[in-house]
Amino acid sequence: MSSHPPSSATPQAPRASTFRTLLRLLPFVRPALSRIVFGMVAALLASVVALIIPLVLQRLVDGPLSSGDSRQIWPAFFVVIGLGVAEAVMIMARRWLVLKPSTFVEADLRNTLYKKLQDLPVAFHDRWQSGQLLSRSVSDLSLIRRWLAFGIVLLVVNFLTIAVGFVVLFFYSWVLGLIFLCASVPIWIVSLRFEKRYSTIARRSQDQVGDLATSVEESVHGIRVLKAFGRGKHSLRDFAKRAEDLRGTEIEKSKAIAQLWLWLLLVPDVAFALCLLAGIGLAANHQLSVGQLFAFFATATVLRFPVESIGFLLSMTFDTRTAVDRYFEVLDSVNTITEPENPKTIEDARGRLEFRATHFRYQDSPDRVRDLVDGVDLVLEPGETMALVGLTGSGKTTLLALVPRLYDVTGGEVLLDGVDVRDLSREELRRHVGMAFEDATLFSSSVRENVLLGRPGLEGDEAEAVLREALDIAQASFVDDLPEGVDTKVGEEGLSLSGGQRQRLALARAIAARPSILVLDDPLSALDVDTEARVEAGLRRVLASTTSLIVAHRPSTVNLADRVALLEDGRVTAVGTHSDLIATNEHYRYVISSLDDDDNDLHSREEVHA
Ligand SMILES: Nc1ncnc2c1ncn2[C@@H]1O[C@H](COP(=O)(O)OP(=O)(O)OP(=O)(O)O)[C@@H](O)[C@H]1O
Fold first, then answer.
1. What is the distance in A from the centroid of ligand 1 to the CA of 488?
2. Is the pTM value of this prediction over 0.80?
3. Which of 156-160, 261-265, 448-452, 572-576 shows the lowest mean pLDDT across its residues?
4. Residue 558 CA to ligand 1 centre (angstroms)
5. If you take atom 1 of ligand 1, which residue's CA is the nearest one?
6. Alpha-carbon distance 308 to 148, whole Å?
7. For the chain, N or C: smaller number of CB within 10 Å?
8. 534, exposed or middle or buried, with CB in 10 Å at 0-12, 13-18, 19+?
9. How many CB atoms lie within 10 A of CB 437?
10. What is the per-residue pLDDT across 345-403, written as a single tens digit (0 to 9) for each?
């Protein structure tokens, strides 16, 4: 799993404005846009209705209440009731209109992100912490959904309500309206300052959530190691520190919100008091009727919720802006493993593999270090089995990864039947090349699905035959003893199986793909000597028609190969049969003698292979 930032420590690119950032959601929101707009209209109507109620009250106070004509009270009463019901219906309509489409937008955003993650190269995943990706695809997206369903609608509507409300206040009394307007100026200043401060804290908080998710993911993933080494407490300390960092940031966030709230609560109260003072003076001088004064305060009360909620809605908007930023950081990542513009095809794959002056270095390797793969020239003829041998860390796994383009060469070429692998479509390349890794990864599905992963179109008897043959060659008949045979679910990452069992299934998966090139990264390391010998015998049958490049960590694996290539200082310095190289190459003898093998006698199992 990746272990490097981007995390909270990542320097940020220059920030686009909040509006521009949020606008990037538009392509995803477009299908839901009409409903969201209608939702806003419904919410706005609800606000307008709420603002009309004080008008009726004014008529009531200045009319029947002051004249004492009780008959006129009832119509006003029913009008107020009617307006109240209309407001409730509008609010319900708003919720109905926006809730459902926002879930579709969220699902679309999530699927797009997942697709992108599948498409991005291994080099991307090397750099990104899994928890950061997890938090982006779960909590950030749910934030965006809530903002779409609720935040943006109320933000727009509340601003409009406040604007309309101010006009109404001016309508009742321009003096009181002006006082109210001037008194609210500090709110706008504080809100603008809030944006800057809050956005920075929100970003830190969301990144720290990602760090925390990485911690959980790593400790769950490595629970066996932690338990075996009694590192639970250490891991807890590490986790607690990250949780504490997040708590600190959340407190900072709350303080910023609390400061804004202080102004949002204080300013209307002060404005109310000032207006009350001025209003009583105006009413005493008969410049304002009691009904108008009453309606003014009723309207100002209606405006209280929109004004107060602005703080919450702004913080929600800035949280969402951060979530959108984080989301698009992944989506904007460039996939360096590109599809060729004019892909070539290999009609009849023969399986000739050639490394021609191949160079490769990892993107974060320092300039002073020479290329890890530093000019490899190597040819594997069709049907040939080649073992790749070298000291640990010499770049064997890396060289193998260049064949299916898990990484792209940084110089030279890798050719398949004379075609540069970068000129083949990725889909075609993956059809020609099958791969099995030392750390066999299985998925939480059935044995059958895991083994036939590379043959998605296969069904019925044909699928069964391929499955059985692959399991047979990989010596994986243990699957028949599982509770539901090949339909048994192997659990998360196949952890219900032993390491050797997982390796055999991963090997069966590579075999079932029926590639013309098989790339095996020490696929038998977890097997006992006898099982390995049987697998080797099975492989020999398959490998006869398939070109294979096998990283060998045990002399017994070398035994499978027609020839052996020696990787030394980033180059292939010798190619030959095992016995030739033993006889002629000192470094090869040194490497072989340093390899771990339970069975040092290479020839002791020849009868098995015969
Ligand atoms: N994703 C990566 N990013 C940066 N450096 C890496 C990455 N993967 C491997 N390396 C470095 O490249 C070098 C070669 O690694 P590689 O796994 O290819 O060697 P190897 O010969 O297969 O080793 P072993 O025999 O121990 O399996 C190592 O020094 C390793 O630290």
1. 34
2. no
3. 261-265
4. 20
5. 126
6. 20
7. C
8. middle
9. 18
10. 998 888 899 999 999 999 888 888 899 999 999 999 998 989 999 998 899 999 999 99
Supply the mean pLDDT for the chain.
Answer: 84
What is the residue type of 312? Answer: F
- Distance (Å, whole) CA 397 – CA 551: 7
Does 154 have pLDDT greater than 60?
yes
**CA quadruple 111, 114, 120, 121: dihedral sign:** negative
In what helix (H) or strand (E) does residue 567 lie, and over which residues does it extend? strand 563-568
> What is each CA distance from 77 to 57, 63, 74, 451, in whole angstroms?
9, 13, 5, 74
Among 371, 337, 373, CA closest to 356: 373
Closest CA to 436 of 494, 515, 520, 513: 520
pLDDT of residue 9: 41
Counting residues of the chain whose pLDDT is more than 90, the rounded percentage is: 27
DSSP one-letter string for 362-394: -TTS-TTSPPSEEEEEEEE-TT-EEEEEE-TTS
- The residues near 458 (Cβ < 8 Å, ≥ 6 apart) are 452, 466
Cα(452)–Cα(491) distance, integer angstroms: 17
If you compute the radius of gyration of the chain from its CA atoms, what whole number of angstroms results?
35
111 forms beta bridges with none
Structure tokens belonging to residue 526:
């977890």
- In the sheet with 373-380, reading across from the earlier edge strand, the strands are 373-380, 353-360, 411-416, 419-420
Domains of the chain listed by start with CATH number: 32-331 (1.20.1560.10), 353-441+515-609 (3.40.50.300)
Q: Is residue 575 helix, strand or coil?
A: strand
Q: How many CB atoms lie within 10 A of CB 247?
A: 13
**Residue 208 alpha carbon to ligand 1 centre in Å:** 29
Amino acid at 125: H
Distance 372 CA to ligand 1 centre (A): 9
- How far apart CA 536 and CA 91 sit, in angstroms, is 71
Query: Which residue ranges have their beta carbon within 6 Å of ligand 1?
Result: 126, 362, 364, 372, 390, 392-398
**Would you place residue 532 in the very low, low, confident or very high pLDDT band (cuts 50, 70, 90)?**
confident
Which residue has its alpha carbon closest to ligand 1 atom 28? 393
Asked whether residue 599 carries a pLDDT value surpassing 50, the answer given is no
d(CA 576, CA 344): 32
The four Cα atoms 571, 573, 576, 581 give a dihedral, to 10 degrees, of -130
- Nearest Cα residue to 133 out of 15, 25, 7: 7
pLDDT over 60 at 5, yes or no: no
pLDDT per position as a tens digit, 539-585: 777 767 789 899 988 777 787 788 999 999 889 999 999 889 989 99
Helix or strand or coil: residue 573?
strand
Strands 563-568 and 411-416: unpaired
